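This entry is listed below:
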Amino acid sequence: MSLRFQRLLLILLTLIFLLASVLLILFNSKNNIVFFYTPSEIIKENVLIDQNLRVGGFVKEGSLKEISLNTYEFQITDSENSIYIFYSGILPDLFREGQGAVVEGILERINIVKANNVYAKHDENYMPASIKKELEKNNQWKKNY
């Protein structure tokens, strides 16, 4: 084999291995993608049952109920439709009715999600208590932030 043919062979093998690795990465990442939906999208679209998903919206007023110790039932709404959420675990500190939340779990029925994780969202005016105390201590705290 000539030196020119060896270089061509090396370049072709490198390209084949590179293409195979990119295809493996794309194939494996397709299985790990979790989609984000609103309650209206889940009800209107054909979302597969037993699919991992994320649901985002506001916790409906008056819907939060503690079924047993650290087991909760509540509704996530987008002001149009609501989804029932069942969650076993400790809720985040910022979680409350009327507040934004993102729930990650498995769709059991078209309007019921069994949650694995619950994330509370805060608005643009939120400031952690430790930072607020530090600002008050330094007389830099203004209520119009």
About this structure: The first strand starts at residue 35 and ends at 37.
